[in-house]
Design a protein that fits this description.
about 400 residues, 17 strands, about 40% helix, 14 helices, disordered N terminus
């Protein structure tokens, strides 16, 4: 049974579980919306987490209004110790968050009768069970079990699938002791992270042989020879220029977008993220011909959208300059330690000094047996071989722990 109350910071629209507080065990708090959590309090919880677990990013996801939200928090003595955002889909699910797409033949589309309960983020391709910095390990473990047990119960109540997708190594390691024999753990993707040295391009150059860096220097020269220069802009200063450039890229890869829909997306982001987003824009004269968009959290720059004028993109090597070389210079100058380049195009990213980190799916009480389970595992083995061909480091210590579990 739950009772209405506040989260201890004067915020309403929460429910509190029957668990006890303090040394007797964590209290479960359920937030109907991230708006019900005080911003600084949630972000203190998310201090060591990725951008996609922050209050503002979760609010951005909620404003898409395609799922019901319920964010689970384990608290002790009034302090948030562990958090897990959740999203309940009863119809269309974002394409690459849809288990029916990710595991064809092994998962059914979400319906009102059998919804999808998604733990973690639903936008950004990095999910975490969020643990507050400095939380003692026994307290962290108890909090992780509390939110995981509630997620499992919510899935059972709905007669639907409960899944956590795009989990980091650290989160999977925290979850492993609490998983049951029917829970499945699958390496489903990877993210590429580019380390940044304090001396910027000089440090970047040291990561390559002289022969390797010659081709990079050539790409930099093509950028300047094409008359391009880089300007750093706020979203509010240039969002109206980004939509058509972004649409050119997305349409090329089959996404059903328009110049107008992309312009609207960037305008919406400008209202939320203007102080925490920068555009590295390539200009020829007064005309923007390309851009890469970056968000910031902790010591990391997160590359998100990019857009290119196809008439000059290849000639000037716009993408590589804006997403790697100009980004390294900006990151070093502003004290960031790495650039998160997200998924896909791994060969290009690893060849330019990025390293791959696993992203996992955990499906609770997954109804997979026999040929269905073997197909999922065969697809995973092929995926891991492909990732390892780019970066053998993808087979991390946590990957070995997952293998030892027997999946």
């Amino acid at each position: 049974m739950t009772t209405a109350g506040t989260d201890g910071a004067g915020n309403g629209n929460t429910t509190h579980g029957t668990g006890s507080i303090g040394s007797k065990g964590p209290e479960l708090i359920e937030l109907a919306s991230i708006k019900d959590a005080e911003v600084d309090r949630w972000n203190a919880l998310a201090g060591d987490a990725a951008l996609y677990s922050t209050h503002r990013w979760l609010l951005y996801g909620e404003e898409l209004a395609d799922a019901g939200s319920r964010h689970l928090v384990a608290a002790c003595d009034g302090s948030y110790t562990v958090g897990l955002p959740t999203h309940r889909f009863t119809g269309k699910v974002p394409h690459f968050y849809d288990p029916a797409v990710l595991f064809p033949g092994a998962a059914e589309p979400a319906t009102p009768e059998r919804p999808l309960l998604l733990g973690g983020t639903r936008l950004g391709y990095t999910s975490e069970v969020i643990v507050a910095p400095g939380t003692a390990e026994p307290l962290a473990a108890a909090g992780v079990r509390t939110v995981l047990d509630r997620l499992r119960a919510m899935g059972a109540e709905d007669d639907g699938l409960a899944a956590l997708l795009y989990l980091t190594d650290e989160s999977v390691e925290r979850l492993l002791p609490h998983l049951g024999p029917r829970d499945q753990v699958v390496m489903m993707d990877a993210t590429a992270v580019l380390p940044v040295d304090p001396d910027g391009l000089e440090g970047y150059r040291r990561r390559f042989t002289s022969h390797q860096f010659t081709s990079i220097r050539r790409e930099m020269r093509r950028y300047t020879d094409a008359g391009c220069r880089t300007e750093v802009k706020l979203l509010s200063e240039c969002h109206q220029l980004l939509g058509p450039l972004s649409a050119q890229v997305l349409i090329r890869y089959g996404h059903p977008v328009t110049d107008e829909s992309e312009s609207e997306r960037f305008a919406q982001q400008a209202t939320l993220f203007d102080d925490n987003c920068r555009i590295l824009g390539a200009y020829q004269g007064d005309r923007m011909v390309g851009f890469t968009q970056y968000f910031f959290w902790g010591n990391t720059m997160y590359a998100r959208s990019h857009g290119l004028d196809d008439s000059i993109a290849r000639e000037a090597k716009l993408y590589f300059n804006l997403t790697y070389y100009e980004a390294v210079k900006y990151a070093a100058a502003n004290g960031y330690h790495c650039v998160d380049l997200s998924c896909d195009a791994f060969q290009a990213k690893v060849s330019r000094a990025a390293r791959l980190q696993p992203l996992w799916g955990v499906l609770l009480d997954a109804p997979w047996t026999g040929p269905v389970l073997e197909r999922v595992r065969a697809e995973e083995r092929a995926r891991r071989r492909e990732f390892a061909s780019h970066d053998p480091g993808i087979e991390s210590r946590v990957a070995q722990l997952v293998d030892a579990r027997g999946r």
